[in-house]
Amino acid sequence: MADHRTKDGTGRQPADDVERDGVPGERLTTREVAERLGVKPETVYAYVSRGQLTSRRGPGGRGSTFDAREVDALVRRGRRETAFGGETAIRTGVTLIEKDRYFYRGVDATALAERYGYEEVAEWLWTGRLRPGTRFTAPEDGLIAALRAVSAMPAHSGPTDCLRVAAIAAAAADPMRFDLSPEAVLGTARGLIPTLVDALPAAGRLPREDAGGTPLPRRLWSRLTAQAPDEASLRALEAALVLLIDHDLAASTLAVRVAASARSHPYAAVSAGLGVMEGPLHGAASGLAHRMLTEVLQRGSAGAVVADHLRGGRRVPGLGHRLYPGPDPRATALFARLESVPASADALEAAREVEATTARHVALHANVDLALAVLSVSAEMPPEAGETVFAVARTAGWIAHALEEYTERPLRMRPTGAYSGPRPPQPMP
Description:
Blueprint: E1 19-20, E2 23-24, E3 27-29, H1 30-37, H2 41-49, E4 55-57, E5 64-67, H3 68-83, E6 95-98, E7 101-104, E8 107-108, H4 109-115, H5 118-127, H6 140-151, H7 159-172, H8 182-199, H9 216-224, H10 231-243, H11 251-261, H12 266-277, H13 285-299, H14 302-311, H15 329-338, H16 345-359, H17 368-378, H18 385-405
Antiparallel strand pairs: 1-2, 3-5, 4-5, 6-7, 7-8
């Protein structure tokens, strides 16, 4: 049998042995390509089938050879994808999630929710300074623009629609929105959050402003339900706001950081987060849990409702979280607050029954969406109320991440696409 190995014994074809489109080039064997890419030989042929590599028969028709330049280009693309992909770690000093706990700047978030209000924690998260009694006030021009925009929306518009429109209108009313200095961004944040809340249509009697400014949770409550609040309910709502300020690089937060990386102003960065918020796997998840709890209370049985979800191939809403193998600490803390709200008793019992019924088949714990559903159901809020609470709360966290991203290299959030289409040149369509 003829020996097809080269004189140097490597099995590699010399540069002048094979030409590619008339241009001499180094050719690699399948084994060499696999070694260069760090994959198995069969994976090399998978790249060929997807059009990412082009193979040619070696001399005598034995084996395949590959253009070394094409292989090296694939290696470089792979490195760029690793530099920004689903598993990438992005530096952040905002939130740490560790085992079954999470921390804002190193402080237990559930402990912060026990001791401080939403505006106080937001201010501390942004500046590192705690200012007791902090109150945010909407700037007049931005609020008027937001109210006009929201009032012009179709009647069927949801709360998240209103929040997005309010953010855009407030941005248009602020000629200084392009100032990305920390002081300017903080000023924007302190005005944007109350603007979002105050622009929402009233569902109940609006609170009368006091000399020190009405706390934001009380103003938000009147936009969520016509039911008059008691102090225990307001404390539960405020705890929910603090608990939901941030949760590391969730989908909406990543969108905010991408926008900030492109040096979008804070209104636009928040708008990016609100756009992701509506997904049923993110901010809207609590609405599904709300409807489920309502059905449990109407039917008087969690078992029947859970069975319907399982029979239909649907996940049981409000259970499980990919970051917490055990209980979601946000749910645990909010449930504890709701224990002191008399009107929450039935919804709490229904939630626990859902969790216990499901646990007979799979060990899933209640997450924060189920706790938000207990709050919204017991206060006669609409199903979308939990999403509204989530969006308002998370705005403070988005601002914290935007502030971080503005200090990073611009446009660093720029992945390279892993092209999987046909290799050029292709015929003109």
